[in-house]
Structure formats: structure tokens, C-alpha cells
Amino acid sequence: MNPSIPGPYLDPDYPPGRASRGGDGFRSTSRTRRHLAAAAVVALATVLASAALTVLVLRSRSAPWPPPDWLFAACDVGQGDALALAVGPAAAVVVDTGPDPAKADRCLASLGVRKVPLLVLTHFHADHVDGVPGVLHGRTVTEIETTDDPDPPRGAAEVASWAHAAEVPTTQAAAGEHREYGALSWNVLWPDAAADRNPDLTRPKPKPKSDSKHSHRPRTSSHGGEEGSGPNNASVVLYVHIATRDGPIRLLLTGDIEPPAQHAVLAAHPDLAADVLKVPHHGSAYQDPDLFAVVHPRVAVISVGAGNTYGHPAARTVDLASGAGARVFRTDRDGQIVVAGTALHLRVATRRDTH
Ligand SMILES: [Zn+2]
Prior knowledge:
The chain has helices at 39-44, 101-110, 126-129, 132-136, 153-166, 229-232, 259-268, 289-295, 315-323, 331-334, and strands at residues 46-50, 53-59, 70-74, 83-88, 91-95, 115-116, 119-121, 140-141, 144-146, 170-172, 178-181, 184-190, 237-244, 247-253, 276-278, 299-302, 327-330, 336-341, 345-351. 21% of the residues lie in helices and 26% in strands. A hairpin with a 2-residue loop joins strand 11 (178-181) and strand 12 (184-190). It has a ten-stranded mixed sheet. It has a seven-stranded mixed sheet with strand order 11-12-13-14-15-16-17. A two-stranded parallel ribbon has the order 6-8. The protein has a single domain (23-30, 45-351), classed as Ribonuclease Z/Hydroxyacylglutathione hydrolase-like (Metallo-beta-lactamase, Chain A). The chain contains ten helices and 19 strands. The longest helix has 14 residues, at 153-166. By secondary structure, the chain is α/β, with parallel strands linked by helices. It binds zinc ion (ZN). Zinc ion (ZN) binds at residues 80-81, 125, 127-128, 256, 282. Residues 80-81, 125, 127-128, 256, 282 line the site of zinc ion. The chain crosses the membrane at residues 36-58.
């Protein structure tokens, strides 16, 4: 399948929630959009200019947390992924939960998230799903959406058990699905039931339009991979648009997809540009360089545990991201990472003292 991606995702009702379109039964209410005012924060800021676009980086323990206009957060949960997309006061769509329920719970609490209209679990590896009880703890979770591949079976069974106990319905993501939650909307790009999940990577694909020096063919073998590649390549991939007053912010959330699935996604979407890239698979060395060249992100987020035994992130992958023009943030060094602001005034704030 080759789902069309509607655009430009500008919400006529912006700012969000004032008259939310409220897809899937969820209606966000007004979200405070005050700018960070603390002069102390400004003193700690550095400004990175990219053409007319600005990424403001804030590192402060004294600033309000989270920034009132936060849009996206990568939790510091050790080796794993736990992401949040703000959809209204005290509410967020959560994507993965990390390996530790306590850390997932603490992160969402630090963001003030009490309602989760949707919890997406990209795949069933423990570093993405074992924190589910922490997300469920004390929160209203309306729906859980998973990949279509119940592998590893232990993870799939545990998720089913937790969902059943909490009386949360579960669904499966599929390429072509489109959802909207106020100013937030996305298309599911992967998994695609009709696609070859282990394609021949030597097959030519459309040349990226980016001028990145990294736009060469992948060096990987066609059927290589790492342990757990099957579940990794079944990861749910979300192409998220957030409407802001001066344009959409686009995020590509990639789970742990490896070059076979990366190749398939790029083949279906050769113009897949995004402002923020959640780097696949914790920055593993096993990446399709074209992903970075095509996506050409302003911000790359690597969710990774300090001192992990996998060698994540690989220096080569960090170089791919920075070589494509991105400012790279890593949860192992930066702690919790939050994206806030608008398309023309994108800000990244980090904080290490969340737990
Ligand atoms: Zn993982």
C-alpha cells in the first residue's frame, strides 16, 4: 500500500482545542501556549540557526517543567523508548513505555500527564512494553494500539494481560491509518501487511532530494540484521504533524525499524521530510543512511540507556544524523528531552534531574 499523506495539516481551529476536531472520541481542551518567560532560562540558552528556522536549546533546572507549550517528549527511561505527544491539558498520546514501570510513571507525572487517549506500542520487546503498568498507574488510558506481529510472545501476552486487567481495548496499527487529536495528527506508515518486510536492499529506490553527503546506498546485506530483527522490523512507524500558528511541525517516530523496514518505508514515501526524527533502534549502527538524508531532520532524538551493553548509539549513526543537519539529543546524556514552540521557533529543552 502507498497511503497518501494529507496535508498541509494546518488546523483551521488553531490554537488547538478551542474547537477541537477531536478524532476518535477524544476532545482536547485549550492548551496553554505561554512562552517561557524566565530570564534565567534565556541566559542559559544557545541559538542554532538553520536557514530561517531556529532551534533554541534550553538546559536548565530552574525553568518551569515542562515548558508550558511542550509538544513532544522523550523520557529518560534507560535503555528503551518512552515518548509522549501532548494533546491537551494533562493529556498525551504515549508511544512506548520503556522497560521500567516506575520510570515511565515518573516521566509522565513530570509532564503532568493524567490522561492517555492512546498508548501506541511499536513492538513487543521488553524495552518498549515492560513499562506499561507504569503508564496505566493512576491514569485514564482509553486505548492501546500495537503492531500486528505478536513477537516476542511473552511481551505480547503481557500486554494483553495488562490491557485486559485495566479494561483497556486494544487495536492493531496498519499502514494507511490516519488519526487526529486536536492539533495533532498522524499517518501510520508501517507495518504494511501487504509489503515485503525483508526486501532486497540492493534494489534501487528513488534518489533522495536532499543534498546531504550521506545519500549513498546502504552498505548492509539484503538479509542481515541483529538479534530481534523480526520484531524490530514490525515496529509501528508514525508520521506525526502538529499544527502550530506558523506551520506544521513534522515528527517521524520509528520504533526500532532496521534497514529492511526503513527501505520499504522510504520506497513508499520518497519525500519523507521531518523536523524531528526519533532515531530508529536507540541509535544502533544498523541504519539505512538514506533515511537520514531523506528525512533531513532539524532535531534527532536518540533514546538510549547510559552504559548499555549494545554499543548504542553507534558513533556512525550519530554522525549520520548530524551530517544530515540535525542537532542530536540523547537521553543518556541529556536526560528528558522536550520539543516545544512552533514551526518557526522550535525549542528543545532538556532536563536531567527528573528522577
Ligand atoms: Zn528497543
